[in-house]
Automatic annotation (TrEMBL):
The keyword Disulfide bond does not apply. Residues 1-11 have a biased composition (Low complexity). Pfam families: EthR_C, TetR_N. Residues 41-60 bind DNA. Residues 16-78 form the HTH tetR-type domain. Keywords: DNA-binding, Transcription, Transcription regulation. The keyword Ubl conjugation does not apply. InterPro entries: DNA-bd_HTH_TetR-type_CS, EthR_C, Homeodomain-like_sf, HTH-type_TetR-like_transc_reg, HTH_TetR, Tet_transcr_reg_TetR-rel_C_sf. This is TetR/AcrR family transcriptional regulator.
Amino acid sequence: MASVTRTTGTRGKARRSSVEENLQRAMERLVGKGASFTQLSVEQLAAEAGIARGTFYLHFRDKGELVAKLMQRVTEEITEAARLDAPETATRDDLRATVKAVVGLYRRHYAVMAAIVETAAYDPQVERLFQAMMRALVEVNRKALKRRRDAGVVGDDVPALTPDVVTWAFERACHQLIRGRKAAQVEALVDALTHILWTAVYADAGRSGG
């Protein structure tokens, strides 16, 4: 009996994961066509994902719970990509590679990220998760600044809120400047974000190289 229960549980998790992936791809297609996640109905999402409306509600209470679940995946990916192994010795090229990776993930998951921002305005659970994601990303930049300061690469004159400000600016820039952009425009965004992060957090006063 125990063996059957484990198998059923595994199959149930696999089924849920499959439903999540189908719904995520459905969101990406619909949002990619210009739809607003807030305006999308469960019926539209289910139909685009090729599942029954009842199947959606078998796995999720509402659209907010779907977004919260998808957000956990995206948060882990983006936070991991944002970390530099050794920020105290990182060069500007190292930082650009990291920025490009994060922007690439944001671009790939734009539908989910846009849904997060929209849903956070009225769903307390999604708002909490969104704020937690941003705190995690802020902490990445705070630690990078501290490690560069401790290593003597950066002075003590960088304002304490700088990591917070640049992290939120990064998120807003991705939200506003990625959708519908061509590859060259995305590369230009990567260059701009790298310049801002390097100048504000990574480079000492008067230094721009690395």
